[in-house]
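Box 4.2: Ligand-aware structure prediction
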Amino acid sequence: MSKPTTDVSIDNSGVDPQTNFSLNPTFAAIVDSRMARRKFLKGSMGAAVAAFIGGSLAGCSSNNDGEPAPVVTPVATPALLGFTAVAAGRADAIVVPQGYSAKAFLPWGTPLTGSYPPFLADASNSGSEQEQQVGMHHDGMHFFPIDSRSGGTSSTEGLLVFNHEYIDHNLIHSNGIDTVPRIADQVRKEIAAHGVTVAHIQRQANGDWGLVANSPFNRRITGATPMQLAGPVRGSSKVVTKYSPDGSATRGTLNNCGNGFTPWGTYLTCEENWAGYFVNTDAEQPREHSRYGVSDNNGRYFWETATPQADVYQRFNASSTGATAADDYRNEPNTFGWIVEIDPFNPDSVPQKRTALGRFGHEGIIFGKLEEGKPVVLYSGDDSRFEYIYKFVSRAPYYKNTAGGHLLNEGTLYVARFNDDGSGDWLALDINNADFIAKAAAAGVSFADQADVLLNTRLAADVAGATKMDRPEWGAVHPETGEVYFTLTNNSRRTAEQVDAANPRADNTEGHIIRWHERDTQAATTFDWDIFLLAGDVGTETPGTDLTLSAENHLASPDGLWFDKNGLLWIQTDMSGSQQGEGPYGNNQMLVADPVTRQIKRFLVGPTDCEVTGISATPDMKTLFVNIQHPGDRSTPGNFTSHWPDGGTNRPRSATVIITKDDGGVIGS
Ligand code: FEO
Ligand code: CA
Ligand code: CA
C-alpha cells in the first residue's frame, strides 16, 4: 500500500542520534592545564616544526605564563601563508584567494565505467546507470600517484579515490521519493550512489585535469559490492547471515565519511552513520544494534521496503524473521561499522573490512608516523555526541618491503582517556587484559571473545572508562613530529555538569581542536595533550595561548583535518544549515593553520548549503583536491537552494574542486 509523501519521514541530516547514555565518569571541573600545554610545546613542537618548515628558533618571547614560547623566523611562515585570507560569505560559488583558481571536477553522475551513461540533468538516470557513474555526496579523498607502487611521485597522473557519504532524496530523483513501499529501481540507484569512486585522472596539455576514459582502473564500489570480513570478527556467529552462512562476507559499504590511506598504497574508507540504514523490530534488540542506534521503526531511506522485493534490499530488515541467523539478516548490521580497505590499483580486488580496528561510527582513519621495525599505529574518532577516540597498534612490526593489509588484522585497540592534568592514557579493549575484564565485570558486562569486544566497541569503551568527547571527527598527524590533532565538531548537549578539561565548554555549538603527543614512541600508552583551538566568532580566545580569532579566521564546527607535506594544517567546516544562515560565519569553509604560531587564514568558502570535506594533493603540492558535499541541501524537487556547479537553474551536484595557483606555485603559499 502506498503512503502519501507526507508520511515519508526521511532523516536527511546524516547524523545519528546520541546513543551513549553510559555512566562512565566525566570530570566535574575544568582545571588549569597550562602545565601540560607548556610541556607539549617545549617538548616537541617548537624546535621540530620550526626546523621542519625551514625556519629556526630566532629567539624566545614570553607567553602569558612567563614561559618561553617557540617563535619561527619571519621568513618561514609568510612563505607558506602568504595569500590574503578570503572573507566569510554567502555566495553560491567557490571563493579562493586572489592568485588561485578553483574548478569543479567529477561531479555526481559523471560517466565513469561500462557504457559511460551521460548524466541527465533532470536526475532521471536509472539505478543501472548510477552504478556506472560517480556517486553522490563526495567526502574523504586521496590522490594516489599512478607510479606510487613503484616508488614514483607523479603529480600529473594518478588515481583519485573518494567517498560518497549519503544521498539527498530530493535531488537524486526527478521528483524525490514519493511512495513507501519504495520503488526498487529508486533504491538500487540510491545504493549505487553510496560507496567509493576510483577515477583514473591525468593532467592534460592545457593544464586541466581530465578523466582517463575507458581506463581499467575506473571503478565504482557501492552499497552492494561484495566484500570480505577480515580480522577477529571473521567467522563469528554474530556475522552469520543468509548471504554468508560462515560469517566471512557481506555486501557493500555505507555512509562512507572520512578516509585514510596506507603506506602500502591502498585506500581506507570509513563507515560512519551506518546504523540508520537498518531496522530491527524485534521486541528486544541485541546490544550490537541498540548501542549504535538501529531503528525499531524503519530504515533511514526505507530500503527494506523496496518492491519488487529482492534479497539485496530485504537485508536492511535486521529483524529475526527466519529460524536461524543463516536464514535471515538479523546480523547484517554487524557487518557494518568498520574500516574498509580497498586496493585501487587492482580493479578486481575484493574490499576487506578490517574488524580489528573496532566497530563504531568511524569518521576517518589516520596513520601515526611510521618507523621501520615498529608497529603501525592508526587513530580513528567515533562521531557521535559523547563518543570516543581510538588507537590501534598492530601486533606485527612494520617493514616497508613486506607491509600490507595483514598488519591491520591483528593488534590492540585502545580508547583515549584525557586526564584533567593534561596527561592521557590509552586503555586497552582486549579480552586478555585483566584490568579491562575486571572493569567490565564490575560494570556487569561480559564478552565472549575478542570478536564480541570488537562488535561492541562502544560498550567496551564505556566500561574501560574512556573520556566522552564532543563528536570526534577527523584526525591528522604531523608529518615530522608525529603529533596528532583531532577535530571535535560540536556538542550542544554537553551540560555544565558534564564539562571536563578536554571538552571545556557546555552547550558547545562551535567545536574545538585537541592535540596530543605520545610519550616515547607512537605506540605508547600514555600521552600529553592540549587544546589547539577553540572555534567561535571573532574575539574567541583559546585559553593559555595567544590565539584570538579574527575576521580572517573565525569558524565553527571544524570537521575535516589534514596536514600537507609542508606541515600546514588544513581545517574544513561542517556547520549546519542554520549555523551558516544565522551565525556570523557564512557558508562552510576551509582554513589553513601554522601549528606552531597558530596563524590561521581562511583559504576557501564553499557554495550555498554545502559542506567542505575531503582533501588531498599531488606530491608537488601544486594541485589541491577538495570535495564539496551537498550544495543546496535544503532543496526540494524543482526548488534548488544552490545551482553549483552547473549554474543557471540546474540542480546542485556534489563535486571535487581542483585548486591551482595561477603562477604554478605551491598551494598554501
Ligand atoms: Fe560524516 Fe562526522 O561527518
Ligand atoms: Ca565529517
Ligand atoms: Ca560533520
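In the box above, the bound molecule is calcium ion. Residues 34-52 form the longest helix (19 residues).
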